[in-house]
Amino acid sequence: MDLHGFLKALARRWPTVVVCLVLATGAALAATNLSTPVYEARTQLFVATRTGDDTTQMNEGQSFSQARVQSYAAIVTTGQVTRPVVKELRLHTTAEELASRITAAAPLNTVLINITVRDANPKRAARIANAVAQRFSTVVERLEAPKRAAGSQQTGKKQRRAAAGSSPVSLGVTQEAVAPAGPVSPRPLLNLAAGVLGGLLLGAGLVALRETLDTTLKTSQALGEFTKLPGLGTIPYDKNVPRQPLVSANVHSPRAEAFRKLRTNLQFSQVDEPPRIIAVTSSVPGEGKTNTAVNLALSLAEAGLSTCLVDGDLRRPCVASTFGLVQDAGLTTVLIGQARIEDVMQQAGGQLSVLASGAVPPNPTELLASARMEEVLRELADTHDIVIVDTAPLLPVADTVGLASFTQGALLVVRAAKTSREQVRTAADSLDRVNVRVLGTVFNMAPVPRGNRYGTYGSYGELPAPRVSDPRKEPAAATHLAGEK
């Protein structure tokens, strides 16, 4: 999927992105509100060496301090420092937990040590930081103090304790900790930005995943590229179809224009050998094959062609109910020899005749694949310019495979964003195995682009309606026109 396709997918699935954005932003705001504020107090120590006035000794002491200051920073979180602080400040915590809230860093080429303490209370954080700095200075100076061994043994004693000398280093506080004015976490703006970014990334990821897993066909171009079959028509989606399935109810609708275009493309697609018996089928139920067959037949009849519409879906017949005709007598009645074609043929107005399905038989596959079915279709072709046969879906049942072999071509109806690629491929292969010529595809229930008014004759091809003037408001003009007549 290229960038253009991904952007179109984002536009098509924008509700997914919006939901992910709202959820991620809400989670970020909730985490911010539920988080305990954390404050940081900082103090700074300066490490100096006790030297005389000799410049050489001072330089050596400086180098000594820089060399050991990194080691000093590691002592800040040891128990020698934290345990006395916990006891001194009477903190309700352990030395180990306090150590986890203390960080110490020594910038390179300096003799400074920065100590940071985090706590939920700003004043307590400052007290802890100052106490840690004082205790840390004492520990370091004691560790650096040289030990003197006992000079002699005394009677009755095994050993005398060594006396401590003075430390060569001293630590001074250059910056005492003060109570911070605001918390360092949570950060509302940062959390909100992270939530927005995370929501967008999550939404984009879900869209990409759904597009990868979604094998349905979204456009007529994609259908043509996949099947290598001519796309004879694209029928736009219309929510009023269940109530008004026939396009003749609104002759200027986009659907009516789409069926007229389908009729024209069908007539020009096979100029040298025009088919007269055409099966209209689909891969699975619910793709709109019956509605396509009915309105295609209506469009052909409007063009002056003597058209016969046959309901060949003997399992779920819908043609008769669409036109409000009788369904009990029809194709099955003729196939079993109980009536002639002209006895059960019904008129749907103008040049359109309808042969309903008749009673639902127990063996529809055998009836549709019988020699009598072929004879019926030939008789209809002899008395009509074109015969449209509405058939059952290809994949659930085998009815259409036997019937389609008696026709001169088939139209494969594919529902937009519903029929999978595998279903379309399997349906086309099943027709190819019985040597049925697929005339082309009909992309049904396609989304209508916003602002597209082509076909309504309101923006292209239709003359504006004349303005009717009120004679009472324009008496002079009315009198002038009357005089000209």
UniProtKB/TrEMBL annotation:
Belongs to the CpsD/CapB family. It comes from Streptomyces aureus. This is non-specific protein-tyrosine kinase. The lineage of its organism: Bacteria, Bacillati, Actinomycetota, Actinomycetes, Kitasatosporales. Residues 146-169, 462-485 are annotated as: Disordered. Keywords: ATP-binding, Cell inner membrane, Cell membrane, Kinase, Membrane, Nucleotide-binding, Signal, Transferase, Transmembrane, Transmembrane helix, Tyrosine-protein kinase. It catalyses: L-tyrosyl-[protein] + ATP = O-phospho-L-tyrosyl-[protein] + ADP + H(+). One of its GO terms (molecular function) is non-membrane spanning protein tyrosine kinase activity. It is an enzyme of class 2 (transferase). PANTHER family: FERRIC ENTEROBACTIN TRANSPORT PROTEIN FEPE, TYROSINE-PROTEIN KINASE. Its main location: membrane. It is found in: Cell inner membrane.
